[in-house]
Amino acid sequence: MGVGVSLHPLARAVANEGGVGIVSSACLDRLVSKRTGKKHNTYEATYEEISLAKTSQGFVGINIMVALVRDYENSVRASIDAGADFIISGAGLPLGLPAIQPPKDTALIPIVSSARALELICKKWERLGYRPDAVVLEGPLAGGHLGFKMDQIDLESNKLENLLPPVKDMAIKYGDFPVIVAGGIYTHADIVRFIRMGANGVQMGTRFLATEESSATPLYKKAVVEATEEDIVVADKPGSPCGLPFRVIKQSPMYQSSLRKLRAPKCDKGYVLLKDSEGKFTRCPAKESNENHFCICNGLLSSAGYNSEKEESLYTVGTNASRIDKIVSVKTVMDELTGKTAVPSAL
Ligand SMILES: Cc1cc2nc3c(=O)[nH]c(=O)nc-3n(C[C@H](O)[C@H](O)[C@H](O)COP(=O)(O)O)c2cc1C
Ligand code: SF4
Could you please report the per-residue DSSP string of 17-69? Predict the structure, then answer.
């Protein structure tokens, strides 16, 4: 989970319980530099975070968003060099991922929301001499950015269970690699249901957001614990400058400021900048005005405790955040997910 929520403490804790821990690459240069008091560039910070997350149990890898164009290649190189077990990459199509550097023992795993997107990736990767080691299929109930247009989010055909069969067929067609489903999975029973439907694994975010080991701020975790179904909305206008629908708790201070047209634009982080016609990273819709786009870099960094006193927070969650009613340890969650302990009956 992005921007400072899933750092080495959470990823390592999940791996220690026999799971697959995922560090987020987003903004690691600033987050690690602040934590260590020593300036780290993207490569150094990514290498450091992966190294700290690795443990003798389970597996540890990294999520690197395609939308973070400026830092993408350095994040990938550092992850491979640090021996990450895998790189998961979405928020855009990771068409060039295998070409950046030979991945050695690091598995390359794209995230898609349709069979069509998976086919595009498989065809491109085939030309690069690579086959996905697995794929994450993310449905519309997930947190963060969603791979659907606003009017497609609620379509019956886009429910995760309906997206799975064609994506599974595509994975079989291109080499029978594992399909990992994500978005709205919450209980042991959910996991069993999707495995029975043909999934080979699940990826979960929201369930771990308010764990003790998550690096979300106490205010973020409190907002998750208190959120009701009505509080969770998909932000579009104002929305993410990355151009994808983005699920948030509607009371998030930065979302409210954008809605009320209160925030003056300021670009001082630049993680989602795109190149201009001269090849310089200068373009972001949130640079000019915060009425249609919030400043996602500052909002999410603030939610992870970076400059929280100066910048308003933006709380992203999956739809299941409304089911979370207390902060618990990763072990407690993992024991429930693996079926060692029963989920409270109210869930
Ligand atoms: C707080 C939060 C941050 C997230 N950040 C990212 C991210 O940086 N990159 C990404 O690919 N997915 C991100 N996601 C999506 C998760 O990786 C995951 O696929 C999704 O949330 C699964 O659905 P669930 O939250 O219902 O379990 C994020 C989700 C949450 C809740
Ligand atoms: S305007 Fe804000 S969101 Fe856009 S690149 Fe700059 S700091 Fe990031």
Answer: TTSEEEEE-TTHHHHHHHHHTS---HHHHHHHHHHHH--SSSEEEEE--TT-H
Ligand 1 center from residue 316 Cα (angstroms) = 8
Residue nearest to atom 2 of ligand 1 (CA): 1
Closest CA to 81 of 103, 62, 97: 103
Q: Which amino acid is at 178?
A: P
Cα dihedral value 59, 63, 207, 315, nearest 10: 150
Would you give the distance in Å from CA 43 to the centre of its chain?
19
Structure tokens at 174: 């291109």
Query: Which pTM value belongs to this model?
Result: 0.95
Given a cut of 70, whether residue 20 has pLDDT beyond it is yes
Q: Could you tell me the CA-to-CA distances from 8 to 24, 85, 145, 201 in Å, in that order? A: 9, 14, 22, 22
CA distance 222 to 224: 5
- Can you give the pLDDT at residue 347? 47
Ligand 2 centroid to 129 CA: how many Å? 36
- The residue whose two tokens read 């200068």 is 282
Please enumerate in sequence order all residues whose Cβ is within 8 A of that of 11, keeping only pairs 6 or more positions apart, or say none. 21, 22, 23, 53, 60
Enter the DSSP assignment of 273: -
Q: Residue 238: CB within 6 Å of ligand 2?
A: no
Atom of ligand 1 nearest to the CA of 89: 11
pLDDT in tens, 132-148: 999 999 999 999 999 99
